[in-house]
Amino acid sequence: MLDRLNKALDHIEHRLDQQVDVTELARIAATSEYHLRRMFSALAGMPLSEYVRRRRLTVAGAAVLAGRESLLDIATRYGYGSGEAFARAFRALHGTGPGDARRTGAALVSQPRLSFRLTVEGNSSMRYRIVDRPGFGVVGLKARVPLVHSGPNQAIIDFVRGIDRPWLEQLEKLSDQEPRGIVAVCDDLDPSRAEGTELDYYQGVVTSQAAPEGTTVLSVPAGTWAVFSTSGPAPEAIQELWRDVFTQWFPSTPYRGRPGPEILRTRLSPDGAEAEAELWLPVEPDPS
């Protein structure tokens, strides 16, 4: 899998002055567009679209400093419809405009070319199971929140804190299917998975029972799920689980992600220092 991803990176590198077709990248990586975006974001720490933008502006910055072409020619070559649009994007990455950079020879930001390698430490094993299950429903409260790649998501924290505990306990009694108890569900993420894009976040339960008044129902179709479990210090154990799933498990197994909600069940110790968690991710066999 990583070899195919690196071939897709080579394809990007040769087309920084052209439109980068994600469909073609997915074909080269022998996977779906959805899984390519999700995998890339997990491995690189940034969305695929952001990497392309940063690489494009890196090589454009070198052309600006070289001084052999006009700024408008550079802007056009790298896909910007006007000098103003190029200047805004250039300043957002480099902290200075292209004209000022050329006049002063300013130091610019460089996004290095990426390549992916798998490091196998062998000092831990990942607990997982594959589950085929019929469709089910998630019943709970829903909020539209921004996507945050690192650090706390204050919108989610505020949303959860605003839910009355007695009401949540009543909702938990409706849980009659796996994963049991209150779960956090993320759905309808933007395909780019860019920082700040929005997603649907639910606090609810998986249940076959009728939804109480004031709740929202998320209908989940039948499919295959990879279920990962972990325990350890909170929140490090959960963060490491997410990392290991995408940097170790997916590259070494015959599965890829498919569109669908991501479900996390967490149980904290009384002092909140330890966590036991179960992560459900929608998957499908990788035809490659």
Plain-language structure description:
With 288 residues, the protein is of the alpha+beta class. 37% of the residues lie in helices and 25% in strands. The chain is built from ten helices and nine strands. It has helices at 2-13, 22-29, 33-44, 48-66, 71-77, 83-94, 98-104, 154-161, 165-172, 236-249, and strands at 127-133, 136-146, 183-187, 198-207, 216-220, 223-233, 255-257, 262-268, 274-285. Strands 1, 2, 3, 4, 5, 6, 7, 8 and 9 form a nine-stranded antiparallel β-sheet that branches. Helix 5 (71-77) crosses helix 6 (83-94). The longest helix is centred in the N-terminal third of the chain and has 19 residues, at 48-66. The mean pLDDT is 90.
Rounded radius of gyration (Å): 22 Å
Order of helices and strands: HHHHHHHEEHHEEEEHEEE
Largest sheet: 9 strands, antiparallel
Oligomer: single chain
Overall residue-averaged pLDDT value: 90
Shape: elongated
**Count of helices?**
10
Query: How many strands appear in the DSSP assignment?
Result: 9
- Helix and strand composition category: alpha+beta
Please report which band the strand proportion falls in: under 5%, 5-15%, 15-25%, 25-35%, 35-45% or over 45%: 15-25%
Low-confidence stretches: none
Fraction in helix:
25-40%
- Distance from first to last alpha carbon: 9 Å
Brief digest:
By secondary structure, the chain is α+β, with helices and mostly antiparallel strands. The chain has helices at 2-13, 22-29, 33-44, 48-66, 71-77, 83-94, 98-104, 154-161, 165-172, 236-249; strands at 127-133, 136-146, 183-187, 198-207, 216-220, 223-233, 255-257, 262-268, 274-285.
